[in-house]
């Protein structure tokens, strides 16, 4: 199977652009592998500290270089539903490693925060930078140089991208990502959204709202809508970093545990001590990154990944751009309808055929590179399967179904929900922005209306409560970028703008902040770059200016002359309240170092 010409062309463009940085990166991977291929580089004192708590037999094994040692990086905590299942994973992994003739140690833990808990709260301003903190925390765990491979236990929004950046930084080590899976289905997401709207309109109280939220988020596992967390799992599988069929199996089930054991054993099989050495830095290449972007478009995935994928690619010396992402969107059909792009949740998606069906359709239609390396071996075709529990408790696999179990949730490349992908780049005199089109009805994708310029989401909500927003407008919420306040997600706007749209008004959002995988039915031009604090044109828009957002043509303009726009002074806004509280003072340096959204919004150079 070969990729379509347009897919290959974009891949080649990325390859050419990345030639120098990729070569430097691969040289570093090779050098690291040569220096750290065994624990013989450690002094006796180093090694004694590294295995002090091991059993006598483990110490004997680790004192040589014949038995592989598996490092576990875990994001476990028992407050967050997605990460609580990881509590039992280290014991499972250690047992599986022992059965396979290896050893496993917990190398370190990383923080895992939940955007759902911090939405609209000061802590949300730490969220984006937690990705880079996670990468650094992982580096500390692996810096002990005790390991021949690593497994990464992470699920949610910034955790998986942070772990992926770190895994590629330690590119000489094989890496397998082990998910926890989604929680079982609760209150349907559209019903939850209705209660939120009723609460915003004052038609139900806090008790009714809390009851609805609790029925939706009700147990262990990821939230079931298709936000960043579940987009992460799709990406890890389609990029070959999961074992086949691992993404969407519910927690605390025999199959989930069997997949975890299998991943641990596979990680030991692909170390330098065996015949299938698969360092992740060589495994992930330009084709793998393009496959990830294709999967994002085909499923209508999270807008956050327009930043995360750029940062992940950069960690491997690959220079991905928004233009690449936008051009791939024009070439990739939308095959999945999962909330907020539809009414189904990820459990329904999995039941309809899931990742195996999706990957097969995209391979057969030439939208994916089949000739990639994965943790499972050569080629992506082995991922066109469903994982099942064998009678002996191990994992077995069967071909993905030929026909979708629900054509309203998962369709074919010949009959897509739309012929282009779910994300698009907008360009105009306001800069560059991202819009998620898959959840926006075609008739809502063009709006030309007066700007309402505000500097916080709370200001818009206050105006709504005061009855001041019953009209057409484009909300321009500025000074929400990485340097201004850490680029929080602005989900407090979702309900209000949705209500106004339902009342018949033409409304849209333009912001240098984020909305993420939960971007919904209201057109939202987000990640506007340059951000307001960098003097971007969004900072000079004034209330009453006419803004044009055309998601079909890819245009974002304010309808005044460039001379007038440039002549306007950049407003001075007091952002000092963002500098302290809930730990924000500790992140001031990260805000100052943050890169642009279209460069990954990272604090890491290059």
UniProtKB/TrEMBL annotation:
Cofactor(s) listed: [4Fe-4S] cluster
Entry binding sites for [4Fe-4S] cluster: 156, 223
Pathway: Carbohydrate metabolism; Entner-Doudoroff pathway
Any Gene Ontology biological process: D-gluconate metabolic process
Enzyme Commission designation: 4.2.1.12
Manner of cofactor binding, per the entry note: Binds 1 [4Fe-4S] cluster.
Keywords: 4Fe-4S, Carbohydrate metabolism, Gluconate utilization, Iron, Iron-sulfur, Lyase, Metal-binding
One Gene Ontology term, aspect cellular component: cytosol
Record-linked PANTHER family: D-XYLONATE DEHYDRATASE, PHOSPHOGLUCONATE DEHYDRATASE
Annotated family: Belongs to the IlvD/Edd family.
Protein's name in the database: Phosphogluconate dehydratase
Organism the protein comes from: Mesorhizobium denitrificans
Source lineage: Bacteria, Pseudomonadati, Pseudomonadota, Alphaproteobacteria, Hyphomicrobiales
Gene transcribed to yield this protein: edd
